[in-house]
Amino acid sequence: MADDCTLETGHEAADSQVASPAGSLAPRLMANCFTFPVVIAAVFAWVIFTLIPQSLADPDIWWHLRNAQYQLQTHSFIQRDMYSFTALGAPWMDHEWLAEIPFYLGWRAMGDRGVYLVMAAAILAVLLGVFYLAYRRSHNLGATIVVSIVAALLATVSFGPRTLLFGWILLILELIVLERVRVHRHSAWALPALFAVWVNTHGSWVIGLTLLGTFIVCGSIRFSMGTIENEPWMRPQLRTLIVTSLMSVAALFANPYGWRLVAYPFNLAFHQKLNIANVEEWKTLDFHLMRGKVLLIALAALFLLQIIRRQRWALYELAFLFIGVYSAFTYSRFCFLAGILAMPILAQDIPSLGTPRKDPNRPLLNFAMLVAVAGLFVLQFPKKLQPLDAGAAKFPVKALPFLSTFHPQGNFFADYLWGGWFIWNVPQIPDMLDSRVDIFEYNGTFKDYLDLIQLRNTLGLLDKYHIRYVFFAKDSPVAYLLTQTHAWKVDYQDDTAVLFERIAPTP
User: How far, CA to CA in Å, does 339 sit from each of 7, 435, 462?
Assistant: First the structure.
């Protein structure tokens, strides 16, 4: 690749270098950075930007912001729970501490719009990474656009202010490194630093390490069957990959929590059963929804194209495809992973329509088009985000003036999806639990919460936790039950939420 700006690779970049006059840096920079594929990538990014919801209706972002604020103000890491009354002082790790900081810095700079900007930039970085990988593999701009759009549709599962987005950015960087290792083995030395950042960012580093191990194993085998042609790595390549992978494992322990942070993803997978069973994004992919249908259509297209074209595959490509698709079928949140892993592979199977044309090499025109697209980004940037008390994911925003001056004289219980919003907006009210489900599953509070909202011994559980105040959605079963119970009165209500107070003595 001639320069980092260009989407051209291999011989195309070399031809561009040869054609440029020696010693004229500016023309070469223009020719490599302002190409037609870069313009198309920018237009694609703008289209995706228009589709990102202009809202921060996510239950986790609020306690992420509070965590980052605490870290930057105290210059220390969170070691214990500080927010709830049921787990106050219990050991707790902020296992995504590094990914929280960009969102908080965005909030410091521009408020809610700054958080939105960080979210949008992270989403676009991942999808542009898919665009780059697809074009690098296929050199087919039409195919790249198609698979990038499919990846964007699958990625909507994580369109929100999510720390997971930074995990996917690091996955894209890992895939780029692995692609370069096939030509330049020394690129593998970037992997330990990447995993040192990744382990402090998000637990998805386990996926990255799995892919790295798969890449090494597949590259150690000579295999030929049908359209699968696998040549083993040269010995220097294999040695470099093994050494850097061992260094990457060691780099995982460069974190403020030591082995506990490294073990956390396995704790989530094998011990947090209620978390996985009851959180929507951990449920099996629903093929009646748009994302399920899109993934099935993409796989059918890949199967049909493979029959027609019989494209040669490396063994690791087949393995990556299987990991991405299996993960998405098992847990809907991994549709994004399937888009990252499968779509660049699909791009190389899609035939070009007609004879490929060379870039007319009009860098000034391309530069003007990029400026125009940048202007569209500025015009599209929201002047005000959608209210949080509208839509499917409602927060009790209208109650904020009342809650800001409210100091409960007893234990407070609210919907756990509102817990993070309380942590950020009304920190003087410690809640029973919030969407940091792990710590509440450990002490049994989350199980009691599930029983309580499903009206299984609700009144008995409110007594067990000595709850004096209950704050829930106005149309929730809990609110209806307390309305019919003489031991509770209404202190506040609006069209979203209602606050009950116990008037009978707590048993």
Answer: 20, 27, 44
pLDDT band at 13; cut points 50, 70, 90: very low
DSSP lists the bridge partners of residue 498 as: 472, 493
Cβ(37)–Cβ(7) below 8 Å? yes
* 43: nearest Cα among 139, 113, 144: 144
Bridge partners of 488? 502
Both tokens of residue 105?
Answer: 């810095």
> Among all chains, which residue has been given the structure tokens 């986790």?
60
Which residues make beta-bridge pairs with 166? none
Residue matched to tokens 């991942």: 126
Mean pLDDT across the chain, nearest whole number?
A: 89
CA 277 and chain centroid, separation = 20
Q: How far is CA 455 from CA 119, 275, 341, 449, in A?
A: 37, 19, 43, 10
- Indicate the pairing of strand 467-473 with strand 411-414: parallel
Q: DSSP string spanning 298-367?
A: HHHHHHHHHHHH---B-HHHHHHHHHHHHHHHH-GGGHHHHHHHHHHHHHTTSPPSSSPPPP---HHHHH
The residue assigned the tokens 């609020």 is 62
Other beta carbons within 10 angstroms of residue 303's beta carbon come to 11
Alpha helix ranges (H) inside 139-258? 141-155, 164-181, 191-199, 205-218, 235-251
SS3 category, 501: strand
Pick the residue with more confidence: 79 or 232?
Answer: 79
Are 93 and 265 a contacting pair, CB within 8 Å?
no
Closest CA to 347 of 359, 358, 339: 339
Residue 98: Cβ within 10 Å count = 20
Instruction: Copy the structure tokens of residue 192.
Output: 């330990």
CA angle 416, 122, 377 (to 5 degrees): 115
Residue 395 near residue 389 (C-beta atoms within 8 A): yes
Please spell the DSSP secondary structure of 445-486, one letter per residue.
Answer: HHHHHHHHHTTSSHHHHHHHTTEEEEEEETTSHHHHHHHT-T
In the chain, domain spans: 165-347, 397-502
Q: What is the mean pLDDT of residues 102-119?
A: 96
DSSP class of 285: P
- Cα–Cα distance, 100 to 72 (Å, whole number): 11
Burial of 405 (0-12, 13-18, 19+ CB in 10 A): exposed
CA distance 90 to 88: 6
Tokens matching residue 364: 């000034």
User: What span, in angstroms and rounded, lies between the C-alpha atoms of 66 and 23?
Assistant: 52
| End-to-end alpha carbon distance in the chain | 72
Token digits of residue 134:
């697809």
Please answer whether residues 426 and 405 qualify as being in contact, where contact means their C-beta atoms are separated by less than 8 angstroms: no
Helices and strands in the chain: count of H runs, count of E runs: 23, 6
Q: Average pLDDT, stretch 147-167?
A: 95
Per-residue pLDDT band for 18 (boundaries 50, 70, 90) equals very low
